């Protein structure tokens, strides 16, 4: 038998989803959400993202409930330095940032039954 536990977290709608070009301010700086544009992230991409998180943010990287990757604690002054680095690995959103996410199974393209 499963028993529902009371929720202790609160969900606050802030008005938009953050992107790289339109980050969201939080208590620890800016959240910069990366847009993979449907590409798979390579080991080199992940290493570069970790390096960017250390140099431009507080070193923390979130994987959200909807499979987004975001850098935390980014300072506003770092954004002009961060954007070209994201563009170099194909993770910079366009100016509008108004794209929906397309989710697929983790084995899509690898498992013939997927």
Detailed description of the structure:
- By secondary structure, the chain is α+β, with helices and mostly antiparallel strands.
- The protein contains 2 helices and 4 strands, in the order E-E-H-E-E-H.
- The chain has helices spanning 43-56, 79-88; strands spanning 24-26, 29-34, 61-63, 69-74.
- Strands 1-2-4-3 form a 4-stranded antiparallel β-sheet, covered by helices on one side.
- A hairpin with a 5-residue loop joins strand 3 (61-63) and strand 4.
- It starts with 23 loop residues before the first strand and ends in a 26-residue tail after the last helix.
Condensed summary:
It is built from 2 helices and 4 strands; from the N terminus they run ββαββα. It is of the alpha+beta class and 114 residues long. It has a 4-stranded antiparallel β-sheet with strand order 1-2-4-3, with helices on one face.
């Amino acid at each position: 038998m499963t028993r529902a536990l009371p929720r202790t977290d609160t969900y606050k709608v802030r008005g938009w989803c953050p992107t790289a070009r339109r980050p969201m301010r939080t208590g620890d700086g800016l959240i910069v959400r990366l847009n993979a544009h449907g590409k798979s992230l390579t080991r080199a991409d992940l290493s570069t993202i970790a390096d960017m998180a250390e140099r431009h943010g507080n070193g923390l990287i979130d994987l959200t409930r909807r499979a987004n990757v975001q850098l935390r604690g980014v300072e506003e002054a770092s954004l002009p330095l961060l954007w070209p680095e994201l563009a170099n690995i194909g993770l910079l959103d366009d100016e509008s940032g108004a794209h929906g996410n397309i989710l697929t199974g983790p084995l899509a393209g690898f498992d013939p039954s997927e």
